[in-house]
Design brief:
It is a single chain. The protein has 2 helices and 9 strands; from the N terminus they run ααβββββββββ. The chain has 198 residues and is mainly β.
Length: 198
């Protein structure tokens, strides 16, 4: 049997420690304070470093963005470059691990960058974590042709939001990669580096 005197002394000491002049804050954070602390821990000035390393697939089921590119050859003055409207990708991303990605090409057109033939392009994207949380954004850039159906691309992306923990995400990425639009053996890939806040 426990002594009620000992329990009363313990209760008085605990109450005195919690209400004494030296302790002014509660022992546990409120839900609102905990949310604020988590937000401050996840947001750094200018965002947190964010990197991606991706392989790009090909899916012609959604059609293509077609561009006639001049060749300079009078016998064959143009070549048709077909960029899939939709391209799936997979790889890894900081803060997420393994990801899947949907890349949409919303526009494309022939351009010269310096004296080099190129294709200006842009679109939107969704990057999905294994748990379904997604990062959404828009991108634009250009593809420098290195043959009829391949080239190096240089893009920038703006993170505009997302779902789950990325609902209010923002940030920017610089992207470079290789796009093999033809049947060649080298896969399409890209690397991205920038910042994200969420």
């Amino acid at each position: 049997m426990q002594s009620t005197g000992l329990l009363s002394i313990a209760a008085v000491l605990t109450l005195g420690a919690c209400t004494g002049a030296g302790l002014q804050q509660p022992l546990a954070l409120t839900s609102a304070e905990l949310t604020q602390v988590k937000a401050q821990a996840q947001t750094e000035p200018g965002g947190r470093p964010f990197k991606m390393d991706m392989v790009i697939g090909s899916d012609l089921s959604e059609g293509t963005c077609d561009v006639e590119v001049p060749t300079g050859d009078p016998g064959n003055p143009t070549v048709l470059v077909q960029i899939p409207t939709f391209a799936p990708a997979w790889g890894t991303a900081s803060h997420v691990g393994r990801v899947g990605q949907d890349i949409w090409h919303d526009y494309c057109s022939f351009a010269l960058h310096g004296d080099l033939p190129a294709i200006d392009l842009g679109g939107h994207t969704e990057i999905r974590a294994a748990n379904g949380d997604a990062i959404e954004g828009n991108w634009s850039g250009y593809l420098l042709l290195a043959g009829e159906q391949a080239g190096h691309f240089f893009n920038t992306a703006v993170i505009t939001g997302g779902t789950g923990r990325f609902e209010n995400a923002s940030g920017e990425l610089v992207i470079h990669g290789w796009n093999n639009l033809g049947p060649g053996p080298e896969p399409s890939w890209y690397k991205a580096e920038g910042t994200i806040s969420y």
